[in-house]
Fold each of these.
Amino acid sequence: MSIEEKTEMPAVTVPINLKRLTRIGQRPDFLDYLVQLWDRRSFIFFDARARVQSGNEKNLLGSAWLVLTPVLSGLTFYLIFGLLLNTSRGIENFIGYLIIGVFTFQMSTRAIVAGAKSLTGNTAMIRAFQFPRASLPIAINVRELLSNVPVTIVMLLFVIFTAPAEEITWRWFLVLPAIFLQFMFNLGIGMLLAPLVLKIPDVGMLLSFLMRLWMYASAVFFSDHRFDNYPVIKTIMDFNPIYLVIKSIRNSVLYATSPSLRDWTVLALFAAVAVAAGLLVFWRGEESYGRV
Amino acid sequence: MDASRNPGIHLAEPTVVVDDISVVYRTKQQSGSRTTSRTSMLGALRKGKATSSPVRTTALKNVSFVANQGDSIGVIGRNGSGKSTLMKVLAGLIIPDAGTVYAASNPILLGVNAALISSISGAQNIRLGCLAMGMSHAQIDAKFNDIVEMSGLEDEIYHPMNSYSSGMGARLRFAIAAAVDPEILLVDEALNTGDAQFKERSKARMKQVTSQAGTVFIVSHSIETIVSTCNRAFWIDKGDFIMDGTPKEVAKQYKSFIWRINEGNADYGRKIRAELMASLPAMRTTLLPNGWKRSR
């Protein structure tokens, strides 16, 4: 407990009763922070919903684009790879393989990039209200998850309706835990990056290149056997969580095989560690986000 | 209103104690001759680091004061004197580089710049703003009509906010922020944007806060507003806390200071400023142990 001293006279002494007065702007304990976040859950969901709705407002068709965008991009892939080029690159059901890869990876790209910019893009909100700032990256990731619902449905419809048709098995439900783990992982990475992008905005510029590199390491549009001769790349891919998500969805939807226990474990570990580290790092910087 | 309260002697319970805070902004300096020609830009590039060295601007310097229950405090000062920074520090939006702010409850800041999501309707923005301040859906439903009435918006409440005039936007934001029944209300220039009807409503709102033993801070360039609504005034200049007194006294000294500066007699103006600053009683705080510690 420090006592402030001033040399000038006359001095007035003000007693501070900490029972009545609290320090303003001080970051709460980590557990209190989590409780505060939980208390703001309706804010998080409302913010996410409002932004999903308003995201396409300037277009004539409005929210219909939430469905139209994945349908059109799926049709484009079908037109080029299924009808014009008719390649398979040695992959069984290449159209399904490609669409699952592209759609799933896009979910992570959008969520991670938006999460990383959650602090720089919401300065007005941050300066207007006092709330746990981690609500922002969480709201953005919930928004991406919500707008990913039509994308996932369209993706599965393409797998059903484009030749070769796949049989629907109980394994299709394994898509849900895979996407949930992907959501957790995206959230964690977004929370780790957001304070960094606020401090060094240049990181935001680099992010799109890093995401492209990441895409090449996720076997989105080529066979994962391509790197069989390069053990280093193969190992990196085996520990690439987004690739593991894509692989799990492909296995359960296209190849009617359950993803291995090892893949689930690695993926769950990545998701849990990313969220825990993200929350901790984000919480530690909480006091600095209001600065100009 | 107790207009004769002597600053420094505190009868009522304090709601805000500001203990020796300082705020320093760090910005990048851009080379001065950037716009002149291309060669100078190349020269600037060659010089390298020297052109983009960070500059430190002191926005607040060792500011201390105590605000009490029922106080309505006007803050005056020239542009860039640190008034808005002080409001942001009080609201907990900026953490001071040194010093501490203690408050009885979370102060709510009403600023003109606080924008919400402009592509959604005013009604949705009300809900969003209230949720951000920690209200529940049920509490918002109960207060929704009051907020709309306070904002003075009618059918426009269901139009997207980017179709609002700046005055309408400011009124809506005032209404949202006033909805939480804050014990400590910070108003930053918001009163200058509204029409006469809105000014009356917001004055009534501030009176209500002070009558419920709360505290209001108002930043305004209109000295008349401060003299007519406040019982106490602060004068801040270039980050220094110059004076704390009744609005009339402070307004008189401030006007005479500005007059001297404008007359060209700046030295005399600075002398007034220095004398007033020196006559401020120094403040020190002692922390009473809180109940949790005392009970052990």
Note: Chain A has one domain: 30-287.
Amino acid sequence: MTRLSWALPTAGGLSCGKRAPSRVLPLWHTLCFPVLASGCLYLGPTPTLENNLPPVVKAADPLPDQAEAILIGPAGQPVYVLAEDEEDDEVRFTWSLSNEGIVGRGYPVSDGLGSQIDLAYDPELDGQTLRCFLDDGENDYVTLTWHLEVL
Amino acid sequence: MNRSCATLLLLLVTSGCGQESAFDNEMTGARAPDDGIPDGTLRIDVSPPASDTAILLPQSHIVPPDNYDGLGIDLYGTRSVSGVLTAQVTHGWTLGAPTTSEPLVAGILGLPADGSLGAVAQSAEDGSFVLSYPAYPSTMYVAFIPVDAALAPLLVLDAPTYDRTGWDQEIAPGIPVYGRITGTVDGVEASLAGLSLRITRVVSGQVVSSAPFTTDRTGWYVARVDQLGEYTLEVVGGASTTDGQLAPALSVPVLVEALEGVEVPIALGDVEDASADGRVVDIEGAWISAAYVRFLSKSLDSGIGALEVEVEPNAQGRFIADLLPGVYDIEVIPRYDADGVVASAARYENVRVVDGIGLGELSLGAPTRLTGKVLDANAEPAADVQVVATEVGFGAYVYYGRTGADGSFDLPVADVPMVVTLTPAQSASGAVTHVEVDAPSTVTSFQLDAGVSVSGRIAYEGTAIPYASVQVYDAGSGVLLGQAFSDESGGFALRVSLPEPSHDLGDTGADTGADTASTDTASDSGADSGSDTASDTASDSGADTAADSGADSAADTAR
């Protein structure tokens, strides 16, 4: 068990995703008035479909999604992510390590707008990939990755 | 060995002049005085967000006592030194043995003399390296840590240089530290092969460690040090040797007094294995595989060293651990569950482990809730306070929430000792406050300390740096007092509790929080009733189960 403690990303490389399309339909409905036997005359506005937007990463350190690994020395390495959601949905952070799966939600920072974990100087971390999964509870998410190397 | 070509050279990495600030309280970044750090001195560690346009490294700024508001923190730029690292590799163990110069793969540490955040790099296979570091005006030690500790010594340099490129560093062979590590199995001395060790030394108050090295098939090891002096040889316990033999962790002081080196044989005593098995269950008796079982020795029968072993149960919750005979505390820790707290870690204390002991069922605990109110420094309900509870030990899991408008909070947590950190949204309502809690279920309220204000602006060459992590430490003890992030104009503000002058900071931090009546109530009641209940329950059920079964097994065996 690797012990973790508690101490302007590039546009490319961020992995965004959707599990399923998110739609917002207006509360009113289209009305169908039968005019001819074969069809309807639709009255009312065409429903507008709005897609939810994924969280926006405001800051991160170290820079995620790089080919070069983070080098962890005896002092350890803190990693933080700050994010916000344009629809004011709460952003949830989930951290994972490639060899251990989900390791927690991290330490909340910046009034809950961010999350931080402190990587220990632990040989078990060498070669692993750290991921931070940000989701807004509306089926939109962002994934940040860091490759790890222990001195 | 000719000391004129000794490995200790004089190289100091410097960075140039100080920087000006438009703010009244100008940051100097000066190193702490050699005669000790004055009470109330803060160290502010700033980690700017990563950027493609400017490489600004995490760095420290020292703040003298009593004037913490309106700080103008102008970040240091980044400087780099580069070169090629080689070593005079000796072929043989005797002084005067022939050497060849070969490229060296090594970790490289930049260690500021005042304890500020440093730098880290690694040389490539061809020995080339680039070390980037904050452009501090103070002294920085540079340590080269060869990946192969037998090939070349750990080297620490502390002297000035103004070369920024072409820094070719050759490491001399150094002084050998060698010996044989043995243990006793069935009363017979046995070599311990494949045992992992490190050698460490203290540099500017920081422990610098060599890369790990191992004993050969006959139990011999060799490492090299760069100079005469005091070192510590660390046996990294718990790792099985190549023949599967366990060994305890042990620290051995080493004094190197002669250039010929020093032999340090280590006898680890009785290392005959003892296995322990059991099953992890939840409070309802269901098998649990998603857990860890951690054994922490309190005393080994050999009387030498300590051992920590961690195992995972199989799908049926069963586990087997290879240990050394002795007395252990056993921690049973559930894996992190993203869906919430469904079980609590548990501890079984003073469990006697002899060979073949069956521990029976080790039960996880039931979760509990951390419930109560947070009051501000004026004893008024404090709304929108971030409440973060971090387990002390176990899985170090973090639980958090925020207080409502009436200051109340209610978090599901594991029923283990925790440190609760309260961070008010509005710095005026109180300081970031840390409280030690033995039993979460007994907490009724917390009160924020009044603290002192720490505020300022983070900038680089006049440009504000938003979203930078700002961590405020007591410079003397290194204890984290609080953390904030700079806003879009680079500004930050928080209140922190300063440690009492000349007190033990560990006591002071808790005392500061517990001085107020409400936290005294919480901590006292926790100490008197909650923690006793929780630990007694866990230790009674677990220890009785394990000890009874163990004692019976041992007694039966003896008969």
Note: The first strand of chain B starts at residue 25 and ends at 26.
